[in-house]
Amino acid sequence: MTFSYLLIFSAYLLVLLFVVSRKSVSKWLQLSPGQLTALFIIKIIVAALYGYIGGPLYDFRFDTWRTFYDSLIETDILRNHPPEFVTNIFHDPYQNWDMSLGAPPSTFWNDFQANAYLKIIAVFNLLSGGRYYVNILFFSCISFAGWACFYRFFLDIFPQKKNIIVLSSFFLPSFLFWGSGMYKEGLIFSGICFIIFSTLKMMQYRKVTGALVILLVAGLLILLLIRTYVFAMILPFWLIWVIFYFKGIKLSGWKLAGVVILSGITGLLLLNLILDYNILETLHLKRGQFLKEEGNSLLNPENIGSDLMSGLLWLPNALEYSLLRPFPWEGLKLLYLPSALEILIIEIMILMLFFRKKARFSLGQPVWIMILFSILMLTLIGYTVPFLGAI
Question: Are residues 200 and 153 in contact, defined by beta-carbon separation less than 8 angstroms?
Fold first, then answer.
């Protein structure tokens, strides 16, 4: 790493640390400037580790590096041919690899979605001079902002549990590692958090402010441009939440789950009748595309059928893959060890909630909506992703 590289990295880091540790931010998060500085530096260190593991250590096989190198081409186009930078957003950089749930390969929206992400990195490349480890500062800043919204959301619900919220969210291994790299996971997480936090605050304040609208729109745009199917999945939950708020409907737990499930089934039936859309066919196509890829952690080489019975029979497998894997003995492989330990700890904590009366507490409607959305997303991942490493 050259002196100029270190100089640019240090300059940006100091600026971001100044922003993160400001008194207004510290007061809002109820964390000291020193604590915020330490958390952000930890995130940067993990982001650099993510880049090193996926780069020099594993022969640059992580998608984060492939995407970075692709973005350098876009940066060159931006510098030398700005009009082309805008107009080429609909070409297919992934050679017909479908990046979303369902649609046939090389579709208009898939090309747009893949290129939109490359162009975001291309803009970062202009600021960093095309330096990967400087770019991680920008990505870490965005994902840190998403975590701040997530943390503040739960601090309002459990004001006496500040330390527990920090430890259980920021230091969650899967979030800290995968959410810190220069790839989409951290941005997607932030997009979801921006939507949830801004909506909740509008409801609490009973007014719409410019800052909250910007945050909400930013969250929706991030998901729309980077992970269209996440946008498509969160939108119904968000609408149910807003409608229930304005109608004064207060449901949680199994009652809310029943309403959400019935609404989802009704919506899918209407889509099937009106637009001839079959979600199981979509899942079948997506999984089929994944099965064409090579990997050392294939869980099941079979594809799901596109009929209802096949979908129902595959549900236990989908829940097992996304909720329980890797098992502890699969954690013997070093790469899976953090995930295996994390899942085991979460399972133990959930069991404690059922067997300890003192652990009972009431969760509000927004939290239940988040839980149901998370279960849906994990189920879809279990249906479509056949590789343990990808999950």
Answer: yes
